[in-house]
């Protein structure tokens, strides 16, 4: 693999406009669906119904989950409650406006769970017993959601400041814009698959932010080195050179990580599958944006506001055009 890409010389920047079109084709329809239908939030965000179930012998959380899935009650939280015979089920079958639990939905959810367990385990109370039923509020309230978005916003600001000190503010701006692109495409991906947005999925999105930034910084560090090393090359060539030089590392790192997440998609249970799906897409879009979004953005920013390192690079001339002819010296007027 390393030998295959050791002397890579691909013109990545050439395909930037096709990359923009692909990005627009993912983001625009996805956000149209998001504005019309919103996201499918889990009971951690909306609240639901808590049902404590007791069985005469251990049946396992997987058995209860299978019974609920068969009845159409999906994405329920099932945990053992201190004893292998006691289980706590958090589920919902309806949402009201603003994500609040509908009035009367607690009884409806309890009845649906009771019916699903009776069908799978047998009639109550011989095979199971419902100990308590109560409505539960969301684990993640609106205030905590607002603080989470505020934390992401400040993380962008801190990243911009760090890259401005470590490199230049132009590098930081390109990296933050590329990361914002990753968040938009991931939200669109979640909307396309109608994945339930739980705390696990939120964790995958935050992991993607750090993963994408790390890859972008590695490429930008090589760009900075090459800007100082190859003063006679233009920025277009230096960006392509830097991406090709870091390509073996990118292929190996992202390939092995994606192999793990794909294995989780295929082999993990229903609880981890949304996380694995989001992470698999996040690895793809993070690599894609580092090459086709962050690098071209840096080129445009440096053209508009050339930094200290980029000022030494000669101006970019389209392929097929030669160097400008030297001008003949103008005769000086005689006095």
Polypeptide structure, described:
- This protein folds into two domains: 2-38 and 142-312, Up-down Bundle (Multidrug efflux transporter AcrB transmembrane fold), CATH 1.20.1640.10; 48-136, 2-Layer Sandwich (Alpha-Beta Plaits), CATH 3.30.70.
- The protein has eleven helices and six strands.
- It has helices spanning 2-5, 16-37, 43-46, 61-70, 105-121, 142-166, 169-193, 199-229, 235-245, 247-267, 273-304, and strands spanning 40-41, 48-54, 77-80, 86-91, 129-136, 196-197.
- 60% of the residues lie in helices and 9% in strands.
- By secondary structure, it is α+β, with helices and mostly antiparallel strands.
- The longest helix is centred in the C-terminal third of the chain and has 32 residues, at 273-304.
- The strands form two sheets. A four-stranded antiparallel sheet has the order 3-4-2-5. Strands 1-6 form a two-stranded parallel ribbon.
Radius of gyration: 27 Å
Series of secondary-structure elements, N-terminal to C-terminal:
HHEHEHEEHEHHEHHHH
The share of residues in helices is: 55-70%
Q: In total, how many beta strands?
A: 6
DSSP strand content: 5-15%
Count of distinct structural domains: 2
Terminal-residue CA separation: 71 Å
Q: What is the 3D shape? A: elongated
């Amino acid at each position: 693999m390393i030998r295959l890409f050791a002397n890579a010389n691909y013109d990545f920047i050439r395909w930037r406009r096709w990359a923009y079109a692909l990005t627009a084709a993912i983001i625009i329809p996805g956000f149209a669906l998001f504005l019309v239908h919103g996201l499918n939030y889990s009971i951690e965000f909306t609240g639901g119904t808590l049902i404590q179930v007791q069985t005469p012998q251990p049946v396992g959380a997987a058995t209860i989950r299978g019974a609920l899935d068969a009845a159409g009650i999906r994405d329920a939280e099932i945990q053992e409650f201190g004893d292998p015979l006691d289980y706590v089920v958090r589920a919902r079958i309806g949402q009201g406006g603003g994500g609040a639990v509908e009035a009367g939905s607690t009884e409806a959810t309890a009845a649906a769970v009771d019916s699903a367990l009776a069908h799978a385990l047998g009639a109550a109370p011989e095979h199971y017993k419902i100990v308590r039923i109560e409505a539960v509020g969301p684990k993640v309230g609106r205030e905590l959601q607002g603080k989470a978005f505020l934390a992401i916003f400040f993380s962008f600001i801190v990243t911009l400041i760090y890259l401005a000190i470590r490199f230049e503010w132009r590098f930081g701006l390109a990296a933050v814009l590329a990361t914002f692109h990753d968040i938009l495409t991931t939200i669109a991906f979640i909307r396309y698959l109608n994945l339930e947005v739980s705390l696990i999925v939120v964790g995958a999105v935050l992991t993607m932010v750090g993963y994408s930034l790390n890859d972008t910084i590695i490429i930008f560090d090589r760009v900075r080195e090459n800007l100082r090393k190859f003063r006679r090359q233009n920025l277009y060539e230096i960006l392509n050179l830097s991406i090709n030089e870091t390509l073996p590392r990118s292929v190996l790192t992202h390939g092995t990580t994606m192999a793990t997440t794909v294995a989780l998609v295929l082999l993990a249970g229903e609880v981890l599958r949304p996380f694995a799906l989001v992470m698999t897409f996040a690895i793809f879009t993070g690599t894609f944006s580092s090459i086709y979004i962050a690098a071209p953005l840096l080129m445009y920013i440096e053209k508009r506001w050339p930094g200290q390192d980029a000022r030494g690079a000669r101006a970019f001339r389209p392929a097929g055009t030669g160097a400008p002819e030297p001008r003949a010296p103008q005769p000086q007027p005689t006095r």
